[in-house]
Write a structure and sequence with these properties.
The protein is α+β, with helices and mostly antiparallel strands. Helices cover 32% and strands 24% of the residues. A four-stranded antiparallel β-sheet has the order 1-3-4-2. Helix 6 links the parallel strand 5 and strand 6.
């Protein structure tokens, strides 16, 4: 019996959608909280990415598992009724990008999601199949994501989140946007110890900065963004490279003139400064010649997010 007849006989069976669960796990390396840019990076995701982002964002802050039905299934074909890993590879990679992108965007948008440990995100998936034009066609239509807590807050995630919010509420300022941002900058410079040691992941979070009083540039930036939102200032975190300093994280904010400017809470300037692309640093190079943003948050080269356009300001 030839292949065409075999497929025709099985077509009726496969017309009823068959679901397979694949057990392969992949490691995915205040009112003011509603500021307009609090979902800046979410808005750059596709439909599936947004669904995953939203599901993770409303999940328990500790450990757990969520199931997301994909609105846009990821399709692939196979030669036989048992698809090979090679036949599935492109679809799996696309799903990997969507899960990683959603997680990257969530952590960048929402500093309060510090309880989730990036190293403990895993996922499995389900796909369904049917015969279409005599070709076995499959669609990944569901992803099951498991996640775990940051070790420093494991077992008391809700209490840690409450501590962070309490800390933020105690840092409340008035005045113009510039004045409020300046006071937040000064508060962090005075009360948080900077460290380049990133062996402890909690130091890369707003919690490490505002509750433990110690943070890397990433922790400083996340704390600054978090406090800005509590003080009615639109702010985002920016990952990138600084000449002679290496990989760092800083911030962009919308100032009183409605334009975007950069702020580096870990920079060499003691005084608060709003940087435009052409702002001179130490009277020498411009900001854009020293600071190089990167949209690849996780270093996987899977997702590249964009940032707001900075004002020029010399």
């Amino acid at each position: 019996m030839n292949r065409k007849k075999i497929l025709a006989m099985l077509s009726a069976i496969l017309a009823a959608v068959l679901t397979f669960t694949i057990s392969c796990f992949v490691l995915v390396s205040g009112a003011s909280e509603t500021a307009e840019v609090s979902d800046f990076f979410r808005n750059q995701l596709g439909t599936n990415g947004e669904l995953i982002y939203d599901s993770l964002g409303t999940a328990h802050p500790g450990s757990g598992e969520i199931t997301v039905a994909l609105k846009e299934p990821i399709f692939f074909n196979s030669v036989t009724l048992q698809p090979t890993q090679e036949e599935m590879s492109n679809a799996k990679y696309e799903l990997y990008c969507q899960v990683q992108g959603a997680f990257d965007a969530l952590l960048a948008d929402q500093p309060e999601m510090f309880c989730m440990d990036p190293g403990k995100i895993k996922y499995s998936y389900k796909y369904v199949g049917r015969i279409i034009n005599m070709i076995p066609t499959w669609a990944i239509n569901e992803v099951i994501i498991s996640y775990g807590p940051n070790d420093d807050v494991a077992g008391h995630e809700n209490e840690a989140l409450s501590e962070l919010r309490t800390a933020a509420l105690s840092v409340s300022f008035s005045g113009s946007i510039y004045e409020r941002a300046e006071k937040i900058y000064e508060y962090l410079r005075k009360n948080v110890t900077y460290t380049e040691d990133i062996s402890n992941s909690i130091w890369q979070t707003a919690y490490g900065a505002l509750v433990n009083g110690k943070a890397s540039s990433k922790g400083f930036a996340h704390a600054f963004a978090y406090l800005c939102r509590y003080n009615g200032i639109d702010a985002v975190c920016v990952n990138g490279y600084i000449v002679n300093k290496g990989i760092r994280v800083w911030n962009y904010i919308i100032a009183d003139d409605g334009m975007w400017y950069a702020v580096d809470t870990c920079g060499g300037n003691e005084e608060f400064t709003l940087f435009g692309t052409e702002t001179k640093i130490n009277g020498k190079s411009t900001f854009s010649e020293i600071y190089f943003p990167s949209g690849d948050f996780s270093g996987t080269q899977m997702n590249f997010f964009s940032y707001p356009k900075l004002a020029v300001q010399e």
